[in-house]
Amino acid sequence: MLPRACFRCFLVLLAAAAVLAVIRGAAWVRERDGRVPAHLRSVATPLGRVTVDEHGVPTRPTVLIVPGTAGWSGFWRDVSSHLAARGYHVVAVDLPPFGYSEHDAAAHYDRRSQAARLSAVLATTARGPAIVVAHSFGGGSATEFALGHPDQVARLVLVDGALGELDPSSNGGVPLLRSAVLSQPLIAATLTNPHAISALSRSMLAKKEAAARWRETLRAPMRRPGTTAAYAAWLPSLLAADDGASSRRSSALRLMKPPVRLIWGEADTVTPIAQGLQLSRLLGAPITRLPGVGHVPHIEDAVHFLPALDAAIAEPVR
Asked: Is the pTM of this model over 0.70?
């Protein structure tokens, strides 16, 4: 017979395994809708097909929009419409594994891979260098793209960019979360959970009421089959302190060729304004500060964000 203490440990492990199985099973049930909105376009890249939402006339100057974590082109539809009305050709990208882009079976979600996807998308959709507007975690991939493909980037606009720790001393991350047994239930309970995502999105905002309008938009692509597995495969890219990307090196950032503009919410608790000011000094980039605004300015305060974005895009390069 097992000692009583061992038996209790066995029961705890069994209960934990049951909870993980239920959480993961709920995600399988949720992820049954493989339909892709008809207005989206699929673009072939060397790393799989990437879905984009295009607005405006293709012969006009292109603005490439790169959303952040769990964001996708639909989350930026108001900004896309605004820029198209101002005469730009807008390409809002679903950076995989988010939105409706193809999930990568090999989990190539590091910054250099994402930069390669962005390069391929613009090679197909744009007729010249694009203005790249990137938000939050998408800022790392966009910055890597600007460093590696400066001929394709006319200007880089970072909105509360999450570039992470610069010049990291180690890779960081949590090795245990590379296991699908742990990472998939974690993702199923948080990022792909329709109840948890609302609380997560509100936690990033200073103006909490802004989350309600976008709740269903955020949830929609999470109903795709394989979403939780794909997000779990992407998780190490989120947690890695160093994936070898140039955008993690101060020395590379100082040599950035395309001009950079920054827009930052002063009440951001995810990437605090201090990080924006550090980047501003490092890149020699002007920064527009939005008082009382959190991590997602384009949904929290469009009245002030859109003019700031217009200025950042159109401002003459000195």
From this structure: yes
* Per-residue DSSP letter, 61: P
CA distance 127 to 232: 35
Closest C-alpha to 31, from 232, 228, 230, 223? 223
- Whether 67 and 95 have beta carbons less than 8 Å apart is answered as yes
Query: What residue type is 185 in one-letter code?
Result: P
Give the residue among 101, 192, 156, 157 at the shortest CA–CA distance from 297: 157
Q: For CA atoms 122, 125, 130, 135, give the dihedral sign.
A: negative
CA distance 11 to 107: 35
Q: Are the C-beta atoms of residues 194 and 223 closer than 8 Å to each other? A: no
Question: pLDDT 10s digit of each residue in the chain, 318 long?
Answer: 445 555 455 444 444 444 455 556 666 678 888 899 999 999 999 999 999 999 999 999 999 999 999 999 999 999 999 999 999 999 999 999 999 999 999 999 999 999 999 999 999 999 999 999 999 999 999 999 999 999 999 999 999 999 998 998 866 555 545 666 678 888 888 888 877 777 888 899 999 999 889 999 999 999 999 999 999 999 988 888 788 999 999 999 999 999 999 999 999 999 999 999 999 999 999 999 999 999 999 999 999 999 999 999 997 655
CA–CA dist 195, 189 (Å, integer): 9
Q: Are 222 and 32 in contact (CB under 8 A)?
A: no
Please give the structure tokens belonging to residue 189.
């309970």
